[in-house]
Amino acid sequence: MYAAHGDWRTASERLHATDNFPEFTGRVCPAPCEDACVLALGGEPVTIKNVEQAIADEAWARGHVRARPPERLTGRSVAVVGSGPAGLAAAQQLTRAGHRVTVFERSDRVGGLLRYGIPAFKLEKRWLDRRIAQMREEGTRFRTGVDVGTDLDATAMRSAHDAVIVAVGATEPRELAVPGRALEGVHQAMEYLTAANRVVEGDRARPSVTAEGRQVVIIGGGDTGTDCLGTALRQGAASVVHVDVNPMAGASRRESEPWPLVHPRIHRVSHAHEEARDRDGDDPRVFCAAAVRFESDAAGRVEAVRLTEVDPSDRAPRPGTERTLPAQLVLLALGFRGPGTARPSRRRSGSSPTTGATSPAPPGSRRGRRIRRRCRRGLRGGRRRARAVPRGLGPGGGRSAAAAADRHLMGASDLPAPITAVDGPLA
């Protein structure tokens, strides 16, 4: 309403009250809130994602978004491990609350998923750099190239800070255990997307893994697979096939997914799918199919993917339906299992793998047990929620983590906590 009447400043203030980075979520979130919009019952929902992006962009253009350094310092220090959307949101909230915040990032640049996991055609890195500059001006400090638990002892880090928030996201990809997985040319999606983003950052003239001139098969029908599709098209792939083990969804909700269930299984067409259709004349997706093996050429490189149709009810292979797709590049986009294995253990750091929060109290002490119970109430499920912007939960999880840490440090907190310990998944 404010934007419709030209009051962009108030619109921006209302938007930033619940989202630290609306220019990120307005670009990369699939907007499950639109599925839950009451107008969707009888027609088209409010285009919340587009409204969000428009308000954020207009606010920046008009100079309404400025650094907000704290009016006073608390004398408390907080370490945030991970600079993805959740870590950045937590850090900004705690810095503005007056704490000294240091963000530790194991990569060479700040941003995590936003920097290297999301293609530039969905999120230009200048938007990210602009926010990081704002956070630096507010007082947040960043340390890149630091893998906590390897380069920096987790116990020492915990002792040096009054609170620690672990926002490492989910970086351990799911594997596809089929014959030929080790062939040259079969890569995890994040390896491929990171290589493409390295070119955007100016680190390389050409990506270490490229689709240029190759027949590409992408396995996995989610957002990451779609990002691989758009990237492959831009790199000049000869052809792209996008394999999804799920059946093709219908155009409307099923009876088993009534409103207001968010993100129901509906046939969706992304910009990347439209681009592939415009270029090649057809939708690139193959539904109800699974890879059973990768075939090799004489030099040990992948040259084909053997597919089978699967039963939509249990994904069991259907006998007699196997076929071969030529492929010189195969990308696995099967989702993520959780945080990588190279992370501080609970016993070593005194942290809870459930909450992702630590404090310098001895783990076995009465105070240590009380702190962990307090953090659990504020951060339960933090690892799952912190791992991705595309579900719109990254900044929200970070804000909740910040509120829990602030409450632990100060005894009470005015910081909002949009996600509580009893919240279930959206879908």
What is the residue-averaged pLDDT? 87
The proportion of residues in beta strands is 15-25%
With strands numbered from the N-terminus, the spatial order across the biggest sheet is: 3-2-1-4-15
Principal-axis shape = globular
Radius of gyration: 23 Å
Low-confidence residue ranges:
343-393
Largest sheet: 5 strands, mixed
Helicity, in percent?
25-40%
Q: Terminal Cα separation, in Å?
A: 29 Å
List keywords for this structure.
427 residues, alpha/beta, five-stranded parallel beta sheet, 15 helices, 16% strand
3D structure, described in words:
The protein is of the alpha/beta class and 427 residues long. Helix content is 34%, strand content 16%. It has 15 helices and 15 strands. It has helices at 8-16, 22-28, 32-35, 48-61, 85-96, 113-117, 125-138, 154-160, 189-200, 223-234, 271-280, 346-349, 366-379, 382-385, 394-410; strands at residues 77-81, 100-105, 141-144, 163-166, 172-173, 186-188, 215-219, 239-244, 285-287, 289-296, 302-309, 323-326, 329-332, 336-338, 357-358. The strands form four sheets. Strands 3-2-1-4-15 form a five-stranded mixed β-sheet, sandwiched between helices. It has a five-stranded parallel β-sheet with strand order 6-13-7-8-9. Helix 10 (223-234) links the parallel strand 7 (215-219) and strand 8. It is globular. The two termini are 29 Å apart.
